[in-house]
Amino acid sequence: DCRQYTNRSCEECLKNVTCLWCASSKRCMEYPVQRILPPADLCELRSARWGVCWVNFEALIIAMSVVGGTLLVMLGVCCCCCCCKKKSKKQVSGRDKDDERAAREREKRRVRQEERRAEMKSRHDEIRRKYGTV
Question: Helices H, strands E: what count in the chain?
Answer without folding.
Answer: 2, 4
